[in-house]
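Please, structure for the following, as tokens.
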Amino acid sequence: MMQVLLTLLILVAPPAPPAPPAPPAPPAPGVHQTPTAPPHIAVVGASASAGWGVVVPQSKATHDGPSMHHRHIDLAEVIDVVLQPQAAQVDSHATSMFFRAPNTHGPSQINAAIADKVDLVIGIDFLFWYAYGFQLGVDHSNGGDTPERLASLERGLAQLDRLTVPVVIGDIPDMRSATDAGPIPLLSKGQVPSPKALTAINIRIHEWAEARPSVSVVPLADFVSDIQRGSAIEIGQRPWPPDARLLQADRLHPTTDGLFAVAVLAADAAAASHQSLSRPDETTSPATIRAAMQTPATEPVTP
């Protein structure tokens, strides 16, 4: 009898509920998941990112009266152009005054990026003035400035460590030739790291980045070295015009074509870090970027 009852219970018992679906696979390390909205990108850094001395021509004004024939541009604006037709919001927190107070401007810019809840941060020259700067009373001849410069670099890296989104940075180029640029050099010899210090700085930057899958390093040091040597320039397998001048007369800041090149380097790295972005088109060149940025002046300018 007991066996009959058990059999009946088994027959009328409800079926077991289906197993819950498996959770989605996590994103690959260092790759940001595609957000529902266009990615919000923040550019942080110093005068190169701020577009110091960089202008593009404007199209013929559509109004009567005085107008500006050129306008200032910065790295954020160029990145926005080279990423098109992809949708992205690119804002700049970079300043040409970074050199005056890295330990003030650096935290302030990172605070702004965090407050804006951005999806990606690009800081191509963010670390530059943490590596450069006056080292009074320090013997540079044998790398005596190395400990102090590495300590300063750590303060910059600590700011970047506050970010929880993908980050694109640049390593540190050798800009000592700018100390001889006339008529008045914008860089003093006391600001330039010794060769030993510069080597140690770049080793540290790459070691730091390798331990963080969400960080990409643009090889700015090699890029600038190629410019200084007059080597042929390729930006992600895109040949850059051999007659393009990429550094201004101060030998420190990029020209308009130089900023275009930096923007493409940064956009390539950003696309590798963020699933919703694609690399700029292979036909991208100074000419195509300049044409896209040459917008008409719509407002009269008071002389």
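The radius of gyration is 25 Å. The longest helix spans residues 256-273.
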